[in-house]
Write a structure and sequence with these properties.
This protein has 294 residues and is of the alpha/beta class. Helices cover 44% and strands 14% of the residues. It has 2 domains: 89 residues, Nitrogenase molybdenum iron protein domain (Rossmann fold), CATH 3.40.50.1980; 143 residues, Rossmann fold. The chain is built from 12 helices and 10 strands. The strands form 2 sheets. Strands 5, 6, 7, 8, 9 and 10 form a 6-stranded mixed sheet that branches. A 4-stranded parallel sheet has the order 2-1-3-4, with helices on both faces. The chain starts with a helix and ends in a 9-residue tail after the last helix.
Length: 294
Amino acid sequence: MRLSASAIAIVVGLLVNHGAQAQASELPQRWVSAGGALSEWVTALGGESKLVGVDTTSQHPESLKALPSIGYQRQLSAEGILSLRPQILVGTEEMGPPPVLAQIRSAGVQVEMFSAQPDLPTLEGNLQHLGKLLGSDAKASELFGVYKKQLEQQKGWVAHAQATQKAPGVLLVLGHAGGKPLIAGKDTAADWVLQQAGGRNLATHSGYKPFSVESLAGMSPEVLVFSDRALSGDAARAALFKENPILAATPAAKAGRVFELDPTLLVGGLGPRLPKSLVQLSAGFYPSQVKTAP
């Protein structure tokens, strides 16, 4: 008996649908994310419903705070993660310690490492990888295209501003409840943020260096950017100056050019909220310029 063309089409359709469903079922459905930016991208790619746990740096969107916490990304516990019965753990090279990751792998959990390097090629690779794991390849490409355009617009605005105004000397300090902060130097996510916002990082060392009176010698920051992991707003600003009075004597503090940066923006590579934060910082760096938001 020969099948009609319509019957053949139905059979083919069933086979294709079955194959697509099988492929989808093979993708991990229970996710744990250790890294604020990665958690935000998983959400942006439509995977929030798959998340069963996140680390303490995963604060955005607000809904992630309702999920079980696996602790700080650098100090993970295998027991806490495995209790959530995840199929996959995603994080960057900041995630650890290594023996815990090895224990999680030996328990049969897929561990996927991403780069936290702050640049567009790295972000593109990260999004492509996440897109494949979530079955959202097209969405990943779309998000990267929008992000790239936002940064191009940001770069263009900064170039226009610097044509008439010198880049301000900036110091970025990362602290905890106003205690002795760290100064963000070269080769850090913080340095990348300052550059993209149009600032000139006065710190010349690499990485993050403990703040001291000596470390401030020779620096006269026109702008201070602070990032506190425990406090925010006026409370964080007051604590910073109380614990480090020499910072209150800087030209930046005297001129009121002190700006706050969410510390979770500096964790896990480039995150989806960074372009908006760059616009806000640029407005503070170049107040005489009319800022057109990208």
